[in-house]
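User: I'll paste a sequence; please echo it back and then give the predicted structure.

Assistant: Echoing your sequence first, then the prediction.
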Amino acid sequence: MKVVIVGGGSAGWMTASYLSHVNKDIEIVLVESNEIDTVGVGEATTPYLMRFFESIGIKDEKEWMPHCNATYKNGVLYDSWDFVNSRWWHSFEVDEHKYPYWDKLRQEQGLDRQDYYLSTMYNSHIAMRDSAKWMADKDGKVNVPYYHSRAFNGWGQHWAYHLDSGLFGKFLKNRCKDNITHIVTNVNNVSINDDGIEKLETDTGDIVGDIYVDCTGFSRLLISEVSDKPLTSLSPYLTHDKAVVIRHDYLDKDTEMRPRTRAKCLSSGWYWDIPLYDKLSNGYVYTSSFISDEDAEEELRQEIGYERTKNCEARVIDIKTGYYDETFKKNVLAVGLSAGFIEPLESTLLFVIQLAGIRLNNYLNGELSKEEINEEYNSNLQDYLDYISVGYYLSHRNDTPFWRYIQENAKISDKMREWIDDCKEELQPPEQGVLFVDSSWISKAIGFNLQGSKDKKFRTADMELIKSQMQHVKDFDYSSLLSQNEYLKRFIYE
């Protein structure tokens, strides 16, 4: 079996790295052009990334983090989404048995919604409160006493990473290129027949394979040739189609290298604030019908600070949103941006790429069919689309033309309408969640002030245990922890 991967970047090299490590019975060819830049905006990840590294034989963070300017991520701080200056916390520290009791206390005591995050999650104290500390003491030991009620979707690690996606691709390339056939050339024509792709016509000759993996990003070079349906639009659910990106220097790494991603709303969308080891990365995701590229860049520079960004280049990226209903069509599997894209919020792109590699390997081993791969992809995508779109729908912002438009026109699925109605009675996750765990949904419900009205009964022993744990979290003293910068310097980048 010969698998031809077209396109390098994160998608191509993650797929090549994984397949070459776990499946020795296939021939892998990766074709990339040195004339095409990768998009390179996916700098925040989910906890599953470490699972990917372990699957290709890397178990120590020191083996890869210094090569990718990587830092830690405890979760996402949502800033000014419900209203200006509101804040809520989406954590990787999963605890799914405290929220009913907290909701009961809220009804009895009138607790502020932020009390939920600060009374149930240790990492809220570190990342939500603007600390730049990491979860390790002066000896580099991570001794924060988490109270997990379950693992994060079956994966026990409670942190993720920020990384430079360009360096990430280069690291994987250097590590696996000797185990595959790597061809640097331009694809000039995709020749197709009834079964899919027959051959790739390139500057250096024809390339023929059994399975073709499309990792060409927004150009979607292969999947567009075999698909009999156009890209499915995200309208009317989401509208963003542009991003402007600026990277700038730290003023003080010890106070600014916070172990979190921050997503803050601006006039016509939102911007990310991501601390890499060498620089801070910021990007403004916006809807171009409400703001020009020039004004978006101006607003982002104003948000960061003109003095900090005056010598920094801004890069504008067209975001081609939408998705293919069949990401595995004939003999072509689309991976990453080629398969579809919603927007960068929640940083799931590398995780989706990771899943695609696992599913392709399962297909090659006879464990999954094409139909099952397409069904699983669409299920993940719908869960992601629900989680993102409902945040716009629930927002109470109406201070700019974009947010007033959202107030009047935001759409959500019937499943999300049912979930909102259920939460107004009793805080609970939606049924059949796929990509996001229960606590992800509860954190969002509380963040947008969905207030359950029904008291939940507890056994006395359970309530006493929960009360004790919540008090322990509230009393947590993180003053003795190292800053993330100090920890990385001493224990990872040494």
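The chain has a mean pLDDT of 93. The radius of gyration is 23 Å.
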